[in-house]
Amino acid sequence: MKGLGELERSIMDILWAENAPLTAREVGRLIEDRDLAPTTVMTVLDRLSRKGFLTRTRDGRAWRYQPAASRDAYVAELMLEALDMTGDRDAALTRFARAVSGSEAEILLKALTELEEE
Amino acid sequence: MIAAAVLAALAMICAVAAWRLTFARWTWRAPRTAILLWQSLGLTWGLASTGALLAFALDPYRKGVVHGLGEFLLSVEFGVRTPHDYLRLAALVAGLSLLAVLIALPLAAGAQTLRARRRHRLLLALVARDEPAVPGVRVVDFPGAAAYCLPGLKSQVVISDGTLHLLSSAELEAVLAHEAAHVRERHDLVLLPFAALRRALPWSKLVSDAQESVELLVEMAADDRARQRCCPRRLATALLRFGTSAALPTPQGALGASAPSSVMARVDRLVRPEVALPITHRFLILAGSVMLATSAPLLWLLPG
User: Are residues B132 and B263 in the same domain?
Assistant: First the structure.
């Protein structure tokens, strides 16, 4: 039995891979772990919707789920924060180094070449 | 009136010392000691400036700030008669507002930081993967160079896929040692109050300079830790590769003017290490910081 976090992740991957909204039953069929109880899938789908990662629409007696945003959008959100490009210099993360631009980059490049030649 | 005057002088001394400290270079030879001095200066400045205003306002009670404030809150009698009393009233309002701002803003900033981290953690759980080559590190599929630590009770070190391609394995090891130092020493907690103060006083050049100095010192402290575990030269080349890696087009105002020189300063320190500050110097600075930090609370108790 996978952990709940792992399960959330694989269910998101399934929904990202499909282009159409899926029901819990369809998600259950696509998931690798065949022994998974249908209620577990429904619980995870519900959790993901409450966290705002999935949106759901009524389809007869079932719900159809689809990702609220693309995987790339989330990666972009993470990396904007990681590169400190959100504008406000918060202390949420401690970053290794920032990239520089233009003429400063040339100075660094020169220093790098010198260091590698020594 | 003596307490008010001494507290005002102390606040001035802290401000001048902070201003001098933003230019100081000895700090790079003892980053951890310097961070402690910064913390002590910040705390003392806050207590001294609010204390000076309150001590002036509550002078007639002759009981010091703490007890005078208690008496005032119990009786809610201020006795405004002469023009001088209006000045005292203004000082009371200013002192209490400043105190409220200095307490509330770090709390609000802390709460916001926790929310941002929570969101970041949730997203990471969905999109980051484990990489067998770097156990214990989360990898995000992104071509640019990024390496950071997401602090918390269970801190996570995260790197981008681009970082894996950009750096050699020795360089990557150095970067991870650097991030591990951030995790171990909870540098995020050091930075939090300074970031909050900057948000509280966004127009103050001194405060933003102070925050940048502390940010740089924290990086240098982590560099020093990493240097003990791996080749400093590899850490230096990793820094340079990060700096020169073409990141996304930079939005305006996202990069401070000091960013490039700070990368170079860190590289210089790694490649040509200066002698660490003598232990006696460091001890004196430490003792001074402790004295400074205890002086303001004592002055809050001083009657008259």
Answer: yes
Residue type, B57: A
Q: Is B270 helix (H, G, I), strand (E, B) or coil?
A: helix
**Amino acid identity at B120:** H
Which residue in A has a C-alpha nearest to residue B243's C-alpha? A99
Handedness of CA B30, B36, B37, B42 (dihedral sign): positive
Q: How many folded domains does chain B comprise? A: 2
Q: CA separation (Å) from B51 to A96, B75, B118, B127, B194?
A: 38, 20, 36, 49, 20
Residues B137, B162, single domain; the answer is yes
Instruction: Enumerate the residues of chain B whose CB falls inside 8 A of the CB of residue A78.
Output: 120, 123-124, 127, 140, 142
pTM equals 0.85
Contact list, A17 vs chain B (CB under 8 Å): none
Over the stretch B222-263, which tens digit does the pLDDT of each residue have? 999 999 988 899 999 998 888 887 544 444 433 333 345 688
For chain A, the domain total comes to 2
Residues in chain B: 304
CA nearest to A69 within chain B: B123
Interchain proximity A105–B244, CB inside 8 Å: yes
Q: Write down the ipTM of this complex.
A: 0.84
Which domain, by its residues, includes B268? Answer: 128-244+259-273
Q: Are B166 and B145 in contact (CB under 8 A)?
A: yes
User: CA of B190: which chain A residue's CA is closest?
Assistant: A91
CA pair distance B78, B72, nearest whole angstrom: 7
